């Protein structure tokens, strides 16, 4: 049996079968399709959200490191030193209890053969960077905690 349709263009563009023997046609279960689509969308959005949050954590860590670098730089620029620091070389930030001032020194706490002077409180090993900021290579404290501004 053939269903008559005089408009051939319409006949070939209809989304349901018009002849016997045409491919099987079943209505789409709209709610099931919507549920599947929303689950796929949620999964993709969750994956993208997690990736963005990972980037946020990386940026937050970099921002914190930059703030610490600026704190160390401020302390060192206020500290006394009797030499011209070389970019890339490590030095030590101390509190000289005799003068009650922060100083930048070349000798670390383990560089002394008879132990470091008692009036030196070591806070951190620091390195001068090319942009004239300082980074903390490793914290060290004979006094407790590193100085804060």
Looking at this protein, list some descriptive labels.
149 residues, alpha+beta, four-stranded antiparallel sheet, 2 helices, 4 strands
Task: Report on this structure.
37% of the residues lie in helices and 18% in strands. The protein has helices spanning 8-13, 30-78; strands at 90-96, 101-105, 120-128, 134-139. The longest helix is centred in the middle third of the chain and has 49 residues, at 30-78. The protein has one domain (29-149). The model has no long low-confidence stretch (mean pLDDT 83). It is built from 2 helices and 4 strands. The termini are far apart.
Summarize the structure.
The protein has 149 residues and is an alpha+beta fold.
Helices and strands, with pairings:
Layout: H1 8-13, H2 30-78, E1 90-96, E2 101-105, E3 120-128, E4 134-139
Strand content: 15-25%
Distance between the termini: 92 Å
Main beta-sheet strand count, sense and barrel state: 4 strands, antiparallel
Low-confidence stretches: none
Number of helices: 2
The ordered string of helix (H) and strand (E) elements is HHEEEE
Silhouette: rod-shaped
Structure summary, number of beta strands: 4
* Percent helix range: 25-40%
Radius of gyration from CA coordinates: 36 Å
Strand order of the biggest β-sheet:
2-1-3-4
């Amino acid at each position: 049996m053939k269903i008559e349709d005089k408009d051939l263009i319409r006949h070939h563009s209809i989304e349901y079968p018009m002849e016997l023997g045409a491919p099987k046609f079943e209505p789409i279960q709209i709610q099931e399709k919507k549920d599947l689509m929303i689950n796929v969308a949620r999964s993709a959005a969750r994956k993208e959200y997690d990736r963005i949050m990972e980037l946020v954590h990386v940026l937050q860590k970099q921002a914190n490191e930059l703030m610490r670098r600026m704190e160390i730089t401020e302390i060192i620029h206020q500290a006394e030193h009797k030499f011209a620091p070389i970019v890339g070389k490590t030095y030590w930030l101390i509190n000289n209890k005799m003068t009650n001032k922060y100083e930048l020194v070349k000798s670390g706490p383990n560089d002394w053969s008879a132990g470091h002077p008692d009036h030196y409180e070591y806070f951190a090993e620091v390195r001068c960077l090319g942009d004239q900021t300082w980074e903390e290579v490793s914290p060290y404290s004979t006094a407790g905690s590193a100085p804060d501004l």
